[in-house]
């Protein structure tokens, strides 16, 4: 589990061409069937389709508009995300599952503003988002009793009721696109043959970290994915260098290119904090959730970060 | 039908009062029963669609403690995002807030291929007309091509899941149903038996029987080949005896039936065969046994040179990578020769129409699954249910609406939770599924199939524009 199965492009390019240790598990599974079921052009086709769906989902919404919320509500959201990430780690779920939960959470509260709810209801709904994401992405069903909140004790029926509310509010459209969908595509595009070791785990770490900074309904997953991959490859790029890198990928217009760069800048800052802040010196409930190094399960992502200054 | 899937909990607290959503239907009775629950036939009362028949599938309560069942979530999610003339149409999702059960309302289809084949075999003793077979097959492939273009694999195609519309505007139109096992390619897959699901093995592709863990859309094409042969001969092509054990037993008899007709698969023709677990493990039975190639043509009584035989044998290609795709099959010569396939598969321009029986309705069972007069009987044999439920395994259902207990919560005031419940069950809280206007979320550039019925919201990447223009619509 863990990161090993996060990228899900039809053809797992990364997996075939660079036997990154991260992907060992998947590689072994791939062996029995022919991994070359999808051609390069099908990959492009797949990405085009994802982008099209993304455009439909995000509509004309400006990509970098930021949803304004009060700091106390931000705190509530961060608490929910912390809980989701910690639960993911303790249950050994995929990173994608946690990310998807936050996507559901943000989509839900973009329709029913956070301020309208009591704290316990928000916590219950975040739990429901997580259990729904697990049902979508994990291959085994986890009993609801496995999800424990510290402050509240919800019974199964209450959780199920919350699940139904989330499902109906999201109109049962649970197949949200996440940056993970684009990860291997962009890694391949930006790196070509020379993929730095542990790149995918750094990219995933950035995906996870960015959820604490932005509302996921404000940013298109493809843009988050492109920016994160670029930062993970090189966090010192100038604007021109970023443009140079993304120009061969003819997926976006100039507006999106702009957004990639602003997203890149934001992730540069995140990256600096991740690198600077060792996990041990940060108290578990630090005020800024981003300061804490993510609780990555190294055994499932065995590629160590190479030390970067 | 508007936004009716959320009803007000206040109206459902008593046994004798129907929930609001249910009041818009006249319930006629139960038409099917399966692993996932019950299927009912109902008519719409409202003036706009008065009398229109609807199949309502009630999901069984998931195991207590697991919340909303993943199968229900996946099926509804897929159905919400797809729209095609040859795919069953979900018109509404109803949540019964009292017991949190889910009801899916579909356009009702009077027939299915299981019943049609059975009728020809057992009642009229006469083969299905060439026109009808070809029209069924073309429409089935057309729907499947749409699903595969959207990265959806059905995984459980069989005659009872292929519905055919009865009298009306859409008479004789094929609808692919039952997406309970369908997956988007990228979703995690586990073997079917791991789901605790009993799926008939007769239509299962050889790579799955040999233990492949990865599904491709080719598994659906194998099933289509089996269904094609069954339409021609009125008998299941590979009728293996199923091994009932868990997890994922090796279905030797099913493979044996296949090898007897198609001959032994060889590494030469199917190189990745060597990697399949059961092929490696069960050397004695599989590799050791020698099969004479009976010949598919003798089983289906088709001349080897005929286009029909050519198409069938391409669908039953052992190597999934070489197996014909739905898109390719639609282009096959078979469909360009007379008789040409038509939209109304039941009424051929030349032949006399066959009168198929209507679905039996068990009028003694109510929406809760409780019987009013006598214990319910399965209404039709086998798994011929319209509501697309594989298998015929009944199960216990909740026997009546009851007040949901609100206890068990610590550090929270009961009235606070009540407020949440009320909020959750307010009418109009999301999920208005306007039946006509379910937008196609993934308006994909189609791989060029005529008669594509997709109603796309926009054309930024429409069918003509492949490869799509680089600048996406804003």
UniProtKB/TrEMBL annotation, chain A:
Domain of life: Eukaryota
Alphabetized InterPro entries for the sequence: Cyclin, Cyclin-like_dom, Cyclin-like_sf, Cyclin_C-dom, Cyclin_N
Claim: Ribonucleoprotein is one of the keywords in the record: no
One of the GO biological process terms: cell division
Coiled-coil intervals, chain numbering: none
SMART domains per the UniProt record, alphabetical: CYCLIN (SM00385), Cyclin_C (SM01332)
Keyword field: Cell cycle, Cell division, Cyclin
Domain named Cyclin-like: residues: 82-168
Domain Cyclin C-terminal: 177-294
CDD domains per the UniProt record, alphabetical: CYCLIN_AtCycD-like_rpt2 (cd20544)
Keyword Cell division applies: yes
Family label: Belongs to the cyclin family.
Subunit comment: Interacts with the CDC2 protein kinase to form a serine/threonine kinase holoenzyme complex also known as maturation promoting factor (MPF). The cyclin subunit imparts substrate specificity to the complex.
UniProt-recorded name of the protein: B-like cyclin
TrEMBL record, chain B:
EC number: 2.7.11.22, 2.7.11.23
Catalytically driven reaction(s): L-seryl-[protein] + ATP = O-phospho-L-seryl-[protein] + ADP + H(+); [DNA-directed RNA polymerase] + ATP = phospho-[DNA-directed RNA polymerase] + ADP + H(+); L-threonyl-[protein] + ATP = O-phospho-L-threonyl-[protein] + ADP + H(+)
Listed Gene3D superfamilies: Phosphorylase Kinase, domain 1, Transferase(Phosphotransferase) domain 1
Keyword Phosphoprotein applies: yes
UniProt domain Protein kinase: residue ranges: 25-335
Record keywords, A-Z: ATP-binding, Kinase, Nucleotide-binding, Phosphoprotein, Serine/threonine-protein kinase, Transferase
PROSITE patterns with a match to the protein in the record: PROTEIN_KINASE_ATP (PS00107), PROTEIN_KINASE_DOM (PS50011), PROTEIN_KINASE_ST (PS00108)
GO cellular component terms, semicolon-separated: mediator complex
An example molecular function term from Gene Ontology annotations: ATP binding
SMART domains from the UniProt entry: S_TKc
Biased composition (Polar residues): 367-386
Region annotated Disordered, chain positions: 341-411, 423-474
Chain positions recorded as ATP binding sites: 58
Similarity remark: Belongs to the protein kinase superfamily. CMGC Ser/Thr protein kinase family. CDC2/CDKX subfamily.
Protein name, entry field: Cyclin-dependent kinase E-1
UniProt organism field: Quercus rubra (Northern red oak)
């Amino acid at each position: 589990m863990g990161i090993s199965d996060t990228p899900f492009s039809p053809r797992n390019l990364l997996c075939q061409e660079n036997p990154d240790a991260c992907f060992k598990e998947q590689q072994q599974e791939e062996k029995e069937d022919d991994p070359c079921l999808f051609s390069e052009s099908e990959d492009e086709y797949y990405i085009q389709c994802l982008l099209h769906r993304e455009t439909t989902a995000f509509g004309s919404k400006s990509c970098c508009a930021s949803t304004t919320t009060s700091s106390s509500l931000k705190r509530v959201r961060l608490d929910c995300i912390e809980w989701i990430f910690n639960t993911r780690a303790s249950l050994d779920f995929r990173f994608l599952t946690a990310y998807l939960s936050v996507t559901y959470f943000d989509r839900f509260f973009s329709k029913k503003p956070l301020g309208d709810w009591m704290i316990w209801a928000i916590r219950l709904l975040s739990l429901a988002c997580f259990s729904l994401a697990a049902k979508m992405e994990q291959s085994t069903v986890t009993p609801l009793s496995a999800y424990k909140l510290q402050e509240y004790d919800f019974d199964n029926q209450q959780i199920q009721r919350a699940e139904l509310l989330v499902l109906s509010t999201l109109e049962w459209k649970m197949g949200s696109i996440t940056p993970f969908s684009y990860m291997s595509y962009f890694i391949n595009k930006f790196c070509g043959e020379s993929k730095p070791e542990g790149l995918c785990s750094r990219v995933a770490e950035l995906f996870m970290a960015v959820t604490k900074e932005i509302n996921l309904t404000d940013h298109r997953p493809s843009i988050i994915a492109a920016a994160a991959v670029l930062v993970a490859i090189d966090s010192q790029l100038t604007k021109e260098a970023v443009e140079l890198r993304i120009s061969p990928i003819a997926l976006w217009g100039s507006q999106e290119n702009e957004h990639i760069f602003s997203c890149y800048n934001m992730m540069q800052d995140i990256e600096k904090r991740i690198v600077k802040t060792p996990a041990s010196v940060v108290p578990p409930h630090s005020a800024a959730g981003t300061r804490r190094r993510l609780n990555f399960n190294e055994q499932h992502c065995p590629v160590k970060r190479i030390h970067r200054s | 039908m508007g936004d009716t899937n959320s009803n007000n909990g206040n109206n459902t607290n008593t046994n004798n009062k129907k929930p609001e959503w249910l009041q818009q239907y006249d319930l006629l009775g139960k038409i099917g029963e399966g692993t996932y629950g019950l299927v009912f036939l109902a008519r719409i009362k409202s003036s706009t669609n008065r009398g229109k028949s609807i199949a309502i599938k009630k999901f069984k309560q998931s195991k207590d403690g697991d919340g909303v069942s993943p199968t229900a979530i996946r099926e509804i999610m897929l159905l919400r995002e797809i729209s095609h003339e040859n795919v069953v149409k979900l018109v509404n999702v109803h949540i019964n807030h009292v017991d949190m059960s889910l009801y899916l309302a579909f356009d009702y289809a009077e027939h299915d291929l299981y019943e049609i084949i059975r009728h020809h075999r057992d009642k009229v003793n006469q083969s299905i007309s060439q026109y009808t077979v070809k029209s069924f097959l073309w429409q089935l492939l057309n729907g499947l091509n749409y699903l595969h273009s959207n990265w959806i694999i059905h995984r459980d195609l069989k005659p009872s899941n292929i519905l055919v519309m009865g009298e009306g505007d859409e008479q004789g139109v094929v609808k692919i149903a039952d997406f309970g096992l369908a997956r988007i390619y990228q979703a995690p897959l586990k073997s079917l038996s791991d789901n605790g699901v009993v799926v008939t093995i007769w239509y299962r592709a050889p790579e799955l029987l040999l233990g492949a863990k990865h599904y491709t859309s080719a598994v659906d094409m194998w099933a289509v080949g089996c269904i094609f042969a069954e339409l021609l001969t009125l008998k299941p092509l590979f009728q293996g005896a199923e091994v009932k054990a868990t997890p994922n037993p090796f279905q030797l008899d099913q493979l044996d039936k296949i090898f007897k007709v198609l001959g032994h698969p060889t590494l030469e023709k199917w190189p990745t065969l060597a990697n399949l677990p059961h092929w490696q493990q069960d050397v004695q039975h599989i590799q050791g046994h020698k099969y004479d190639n009976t010949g598919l043509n003798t089983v289906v009584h088709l001349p080897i040179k005929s286009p029909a035989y050519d198409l069938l044998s391409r669908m039953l290609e052992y190597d999934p990578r070489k197996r014909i795709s739905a898109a390719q099959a639609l282009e096959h010569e078979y469909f360009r020769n007379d008789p040409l396939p038509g939209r109304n598969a039941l009424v051929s321009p030349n032949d006399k129409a066959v009168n198929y029986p209507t679905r039996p309705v068990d009028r003694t069972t109510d929406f809760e699954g409780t019987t009013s007069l006598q214990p319910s009987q399965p209404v039709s044999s086998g798994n011929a249910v319209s509501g697309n439920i594989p298998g015929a395994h009944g199960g216990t259902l909740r026997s009546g609406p009851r007040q949901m207990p609100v206890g068990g919560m610590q550090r929270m005031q009961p009235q606070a939770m009540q407020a949440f419940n009320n909020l959750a069950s307010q009418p109009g809280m999301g999920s208005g599924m306007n039946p006509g206007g379910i937008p196609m979320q993934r308006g994909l550039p189609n791989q060029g199939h005529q008669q594509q019925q997709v109603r796309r919201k926009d054309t930024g990447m429409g069918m003509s524009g492949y490869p799509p223009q680089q600048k996406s619509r804003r």
